[in-house]
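User: Run a structure prediction on this.
Assistant: Running it now.
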Amino acid sequence: MTMLAGLTPRHFLWEVRDRIAVIRLNRPERKNPLTFDSYAELRDLFRALPYAEDVDVVVLAPNGGNFCSGGDVHEIIGPLVGRDMKGLLAFTRMTGDLVKAMIGCGKPVIAAVDGICVGAGAILAMASDLRIATPAAKTAFLFTRVGLAGCDMGACAMLPRIIGQGRAADLLYTGRTMSADEGAAWGFYNALHAPEALEAEAMALAGRIAAGPCFAHGITKTQLNQEWNMGLDQAIEAEAQAQAICMQTEDFARAYRAFVAKERPVFEGN
């Protein structure tokens, strides 16, 4: 059994409440940029989450009115200019590993976005399962603005699946800001909430998910991501096998007994 509630990370804030983990980048004076160390520490955290039995849902929360301003200009972009190809590839693979760790963590991830959400911050939101925001959220995939391609950390694969190919191409070629209203209309954001209500809404959503059959939620997350690479016949067969596994859980039996008793099921995640 792996317990993460007592984790003391160095590069972000972390707490667990009612089996919901809350993560905040902790440089609000700079709008919460990422550094080499915070990238790596987040990657390692998400890699550990599949084995954490005290966490059912993860919320990525803002800090100081902003979500994340991307890679730190002075601590990441400056040093990268001087790296050789081997060092550059080590960095880009490490950042991509964070996205892969988020996808593979087995827990639903909710991004609660306020203020600035750009560059790698926009990728963190994109790689989450659900996204909510305030009307002040400003989301931009800024890579072309620093002379790079829009294909960063899986953006060319994932963003078109969320908002469509043409809209993704617009954002990835121009690096322009997507307003909160655009993000909601395009399906990037599931809902918009007032700034003072954002975190309560995120925790309420996380609580509803955590109260459900969490083993089965992990199966849902796996299938949502693995079925990108399947044909329809493969997907239907994979879901048949996945659902048969879920039918062996105690939560499935609990739900049946509750239905018979005309009660609401109380799931325990096993």
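The two ends are 14 Å apart (CA to CA).
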